[in-house]
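Risk register update: the risk of archive-format incompatibility is retired. Evidence:
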Amino acid sequence: MSDSVSERRLMAAVLVNKGVLKSPRLRGAVETVPREQFLFPGVFLDDGRTWRPVTAAGTDRDEWLKIVYSVDTLTTQLDGHLTADQAGEPVVGVPTSSSTDPATVVGMIEALDLAAAHRVLEIGTGTGYSTALMCHYLGEDNVTTVEVDARVAARADAALEAIGFSTWTVTGDGLLGHPYRAPYDRVIATCAVRRIPYAWVRQTRPGGIVLGTVGSWPWGTGLVKLAVRDDGTAEGAIVGRSSFMQARAQAVAPVAGDLRARTAHADSKRHALMSPLVLEEWMPAFLAQLAAPGAQFVRATDGDGSPLRYLFDPERESFAEFLADGESWTVRQGGPVALWDDVERSLVAWQDAGAPEIDSVRLRVTPASHRYWIDRAPSLRWEHRIT
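Archived output:
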């Protein structure tokens, strides 16, 4: 491992220059923990339509270390089972485990405001690299990490043991936390969730912090930092954009099949006040998920090449179909919920308030609900009841 020391120091310097790495204690962890140990047996590199497998054993050492310390997210598993050593050529698949880019990992650990004696619960062990950084920072006995995939958890545990960390690695559903070692001072999730599980709040000491990514789309998701209160609630703000794979227990299958058939019978048809293309931007996409939780945004192309855009909510059996007409759009809506009406109201109010960024959104979590709001826009309030 000695030949990667210079690469680690260089990566740490890059993260410092980016303004992400600030704590000397955490910098020491970055310069010490060998990321390559957590990428065995290899990674998949994105070639556009396919994933190219690259293994440590089959790659020149200098080239391998260049990949490892490239400050990129590196995919380590496809379709819930396939690893790079099992694929001899480029393959098609859906990423299901990865080593998140170090800038994001380090930025999240910095956001935890760690102190030496803190006990941390990590949801989503993944490769174990972020676990190792926190073990170096806090000591192995103060870190508990939960991973739903048994094979991923086993690889991470082996990597942690190989560099000397016998921490608490648990295979299970991280949405339930790990009450056995509660209470925790900090909870950090390296997966996205539709809503913050109340188990995380319940297992955190008053005054502690819960940090996780909320949202169910691949984009338009936010990193929320909540402070737990004495009354068992938690409140805080979206502190920035964040993108992680969805927690497997909450992952939603993409809408498929004949979209025309699914939208054949509409209850209403009107001119759209806003273009649905705005949902391809981060903050409007985040607001859409608040206004219509459970909705999915689908992009398609008509037979003549014209764009088609849809919102589907399978749980509420509702849809909105958008048809381009020159520079304007027509929306057809069907089902018990007028999805676009709800989303459009929020987007118009957001624009009227000056289009504040995602860090203007606040969240309060109780056992019964999630309440989001933007202080500068009184009409922007969303309450999601937990049933």
